[in-house]
Design brief:
Keywords: Aminotransferase, Transferase. Its cofactor is pyridoxal 5'-phosphate. This is Ornithine decarboxylase. It comes from Halomonas pelophila. The chain is built from 36 helices and 27 strands. It is of the alpha/beta class and about 950 residues long. It has an 8-stranded mixed beta sheet with strand order 6-15-14-13-11-7-8-22, sandwiched between helices. Strands 2-1-3-4-5 form a 5-stranded parallel beta sheet. A 3-stranded antiparallel beta sheet has the order 16-20-21. The longest helix is centred in the C-terminal third of the chain and has 38 residues. The N terminus is likely disordered.
């Protein structure tokens, strides 16, 4: 076998890790198929081609398996030996066993010796595979020891690698809570690629000296290795090189526990900035201490404090003289009629049902025990300073944060198309609301996100009017329902340059998973907050800021272009990082419905927020929270820490596979067009110029560039498909075609689009089923056209034209009526939504006006300001087109008239829109 060098790498996709696990599985299966054909082939010419194909696949797999513990390097030497001796029949048997072991994941539970070729060994693998299939998933066995892999970074020879591997194997004990195997790599680059392509790696031991370069072409690392060269690395000491590698591993996979082994001055090394190392070991031979330290570190992440406490509670015999007859399942087990609940749910859910907050349990309202510990673990996992569990959804989480931070008459900048909970939160808080408009995507009846230019311009307006001190919060949705993601760090940085104490609330309801992927993570609120805090504390930033400030001060500060047309930098002496994020954990990670979290990174939390936050939390949190939801949040956090990287990786892989098929299948392209970057993000917000993450020739190779630089990017796990060419609107397509005919559930539609979302539970089989359904539907539309009469074809053409060409432009926010503005002639746009909301409670202040018969339009032509007295929310798009106190514009009326949806909250077709009477607006009560 030839040594594979950097220039000889046969498969460039290895340089892009996004689809590596599918590449790995598919290549092993293809190798097994080729060997099966080779063994049974008699044609010498075809045999030569198959031998060459087997050689290529083995070479490709050896690269991938270099970063995995199974199959080991010794296993691969065995495979190559069989290949070189042309023992293809035996090689086929060994590969079959290996593939079965990978599919069944039996290597996680016992040693798999590929040199064994007897029937008993094969039967054992087959039995293992069948057992796991019957269970439904390899992880379903709670009695099995969880398995992980330990990465060792050291420039070892092949014999030395085997010695180290065997040394750690010999440390295993039956009583260990976990079982692990060892992966060894020899270079700086190889260590980084290992943590990217191998999700089983949970711990890393960095030892001694190691070179910088890998022998493979690792193009996926380019964005991570900017500013680092082989020469600069070689000039660093052993400790400096190890610390740099550790910091980069932490940036890619912060959950990995890291340990340093040094033979140098261990005391001097310990005095350096080694914050990412759990512990330093002196010399490598102390395997017993290393073994137990590694297991203890893994156990620290694996613990689920509240779930464990709840399980223990469920086993205790108790006498319940408290609320809840269903506690311990008593009202069900004693029933002659309600027993089907136990048949359906099982007994444990009832044994764990209680109102108790003692006896090993805890109070969500004032936690001191396992809930407190579970929330601390969640803060660690999501990179927050504080985390709070919420058991009644992110709608409530949003209201808690707003009430804790916003006082009546504080000004809040908020994206107009945000979730309705924020609008109602503004009502409850009594905020003066300044709505920001997102850029519209009129062709698809959806909005994008709020441009930074728009945010800065609004802040400058308040600065010019002398009201900047009243602006308390900027509230934005990241990412949007349709997958548009902000450059969170840049938004925070430039806004803080204008108002250094601005509070940010990032609604990340659909983005909880993002913290567990190295591409997504930098665009999360918690990561951006930590990064900016560290940046502003550094001397290098202070020097950069001083240079920027000198240049900025030479310009005209009264010219808006000075602020709007260049990147701004905040003063490190005045800036405060105050960032909040709300997560619908149940939407994108493992949790029961309504399980949500509030994450906080606020430098002023202790001094200014802790007490009001506690009061707001008490206001909105039930005194009888569901313990099952809390337990699921605890388990969901643990799962995210232990395998979130792997699960999100698989989620993105599934989405990329689906997109690839939709991009390239001729029939699917005819009726279903996947929206790409350039469709959803206008060019002025794409600094990279990247139009799509996928190219038919080069594959998926531009995602990191866009995510690193662009103002907005599109989450590839959200697949928005334009269906206008079918002649069927989104709501009908969702209900009548996808759900009723094929049982496919989706959440979001617009007039001419449907949104498919992959998540951590999406399997390759589910992707295959969806593609099969879409192909069947495309064929159905083909047959419909072929078999239609001329008049019927005209009807179809009219529908297609309506859905692709006759789309009403999305209206911007009009304005608040002067009656609901703090200062009627102010140049700033804020309004008192609370005053308008409660003014409508008195019937004499409101009336209904219909616009379907022209009544409302006639009033507007006569000069009347028609003002909405309620929220008007059409589904889709699912956000308020009108809010209380907002003036109805012609654009809004046109949009409402053009909508062909049946569900519009706040609108009664038989009566019309609820609006304020002119008398009520003449003298509204003061707020």
């Amino acid at each position: 076998m030839q040594e594979l060098t950097q220039t000889e790498t046969p498969y460039t996709a290895l340089g892009f890790y996004h689809k590596i696990s599918q590449l790995r599985a598919d290549t092993w299966n293809a190798l097994k198929r080729d060997l099966g054909q080779l063994v049974r082939l008699e044609d010498e010419g075809r045999a030569k081609n198959l031998i060459k194909a087997v050689d290529v696949k083995l070479t490709r797999l050896e690269i991938i398996e270099d970063y995995h513990a199974f199959p080991s390097k010794e296993d691969f030497r065995h495979l190559w030996a069989l290949f070189d001796r042309a023992e293809y029949g035996l090689l086929e048997k060994v590969v079959k066993r290996l593939v079965r072991a990978l599919i069944s994941e039996s290597y996680r539970r016992r040693q798999v010796d590929l040199s064994e070729t007897d029937a008993d060994a094969e039967d054992l693998e087959t039995l293992d595979a069948l057992t796991q299939l019957r269970r439904g998933h390899p992880a379903s066995s709670s009695s099995a020891q969880p398995y992980f892999e330990l990465l060792i970074v050291d420039n070892l020879s092949a014999p030395e690698e085997e010695v180290v591997r065997e040394a750690f194997h010999s440390m295993r004990r039956p009583e260990d809570r976990f079982v692990y195997d060892v992966v060894t790599v020899r270079s700086f680059e190889d260590a980084l690629i290992a943590v990217l392509v191998n999700p089983n790696i949970q711990a890393c031991l960095i030892r001694y000296e190691f070179p910088y370069k890998s022998k493979y072409n690792l193009s996926a690392l380019r964005s991570y290795l900017e500013g680092i060269s082989e020469q600069s690395l070689e000039q660093k000491s052993e400790a400096e090189r190890s610390i740099l590698l550790s910091s980069m591993i932490h940036e890619l996979r912060p959950e990995i526990d890291q340990f340093l082994v040094t033979s140098g001055d261990v005391e001097a090394t310990a005095s350096r900035d080694i914050r990412h190392f759990n512990r330093i070991f002196y010399r490598e031979t102390d395997y017993i201490e290393q073994h137990h330290t590694i297991l203890r570190a893994i156990d620290n992440r694996y613990r689920t404090p509240f779930f464990d406490a709840l399980r223990e509670y469920s086993k205790k015999p108790t006498g319940v003289f408290h609320a809840m007859p269903i506690s311990r399942g008593k009202s069900i087990t004693r029933s002659h009629w309600a027993g089907q609940m136990i048949d359906f749910y099982g007994i444990n859910i009832f044994l764990a049902e209680t109102s108790a907050t003692s006896g090993g349990l805890d109070s969500l309202l004032q936690p001191y025990g396992p809930i407190k510990k579970a929330q601390e673990y969640a803060a660690r996992a999501f990179g927050a300073r504080q985390t709070f569990f919420v058991t009644n959804g992110t709608s409530t989480a949003n209201k808690i944060v707003v009430q804790a931070l916003v006082k009546p008459r504080d000004i809040v900048l908020i994206d107009r198309d945000c979730h309705k909970s924020h609008h109602y939160g503004m009502v409850l808080a009594g905020a003066h609301v300044s709505y920001l408009d997102s850029y519209p995507l009129d062709d698809y009846s959806m909005y994008g996100a709020v441009p930074l230019h728009e945010i800065k311009k609004t802040l400058l307006g308040y600065k010019r009017s002398g009201q900047l001190h009243k602006v308390k919060m900027l509230l934005l949705t990241n990412c949007t329902f349709d997958g548009v993601v902000y450059n969170v760090r840049r938004v925070m940085e430039e806004c803080l340059a204008i108002k250094p104490d601005l509070v940010f609330l990032w609604d990340e309801a659909w983005f909880a998973f993002a913290g567990f992927n190295p591409t997504y993570r930098p665009r999360t609120a918690m990561h951006a907050a930590r990064t900016l805090r560290d940046r502003y504390r550094s001397e290098s930033y202070r020097e950069e800021y001083e240079a920027w400030k000198a240049e900025f001060d030479a310009l005209d500060p009264d010219d808006d272009a000075t602020w709007l047309e260049r990147r701004l930098m905040p003063d490190p002496d005045t800036v405060r990082i105050r960032s909040y994020a709300t997560h619908s954990t149940h939407k994108t990670l493992t949790s029961l419905r309504q399980g949500s979290m509030i994450h906080i990174w606020d430098q002023d939390y202790r001094q200014k927020v802790e007490a009001p936050f506690h009061e707001a939390y008490m206001t909105h949190t039930s005194t009888s929270p569901n313990y099952q939801i809390i337990a699921s949040l605890d388990v969901g956090r643990m799962q995210a820490e232990m395998e979130g990287f792997e699960l999100v990786h698989a989620q993105v892989e599934a989405a990329l596979s689906l997109r690839e098929q939709l991009y390239t299948h001729p029939l699917l392209q005819k009726y279903f067009r996947v929206l790409i970057n350039k469709d959803m993000v206008p060019l002025e917000y794409r600094e990279s110029g990247v139009e799509t993450f996928y190219d038919p020739v080069t594959g998926w190779n531009k995602m990191e560039e866009a995510w690193a630089n662009d103002e907005f990017v599109v989450d590839p796990s959200r697949i928005t498909i334009a269906i206008g060419a079918t002649g069927i609107d989104g709501d009908t397509f969702k209900n009548e075609y996808l759900m009723n005919k094929y049982g496919i559930q989706i959440n979001k539609t617009s007039r001419n689009t449907v949104l498919f979302m992959t998540n951590i539970g999406t399997s390759r089989g589910a992707i295959a089923y969806l593609l099969d359904v879409l192909i069947k539907l495309a064929k159905e539309f083909e047959y419909r056209w072929e078999e239609s009469s001329r008049p019927e074809r005209k009807i179809i053409e009219n529908r297609v034209h309506s859905l692709t060409c006759e789309l009403p432009p999305l209206p911007d926010f009009s304005r608040f009526h002067d009656a609901f503005r703090p200062v009627a002639d102010s140049q700033t746009p804020e309004g008192d939504i609370r005053r308008a909301y409660f003014l409508s409670y008195d019937e004499e202040n409101t009336e209904y006006l219909r616009f379907d018969n022209g009544e409302l339009q006639a009033q507007m032509r006569d000069g009347r300001d028609v003002v909405s007295a309620s929220f008007v929310i059409p589904y889709p798009p699912g956000f308020p087109v009108l809010v209380p106190g907002q003036v109805v514009s012609e654009e809004i009326l046109y949009f409402l008239q053009a909508l062909d949806v049946t569900e519009i909250h706040g609108y009664r077709p038989e009566l019309g829109l609820l609006v304020f009477t002119e008398e009520a607006l003449a003298d509204p009560p003061l707020g």
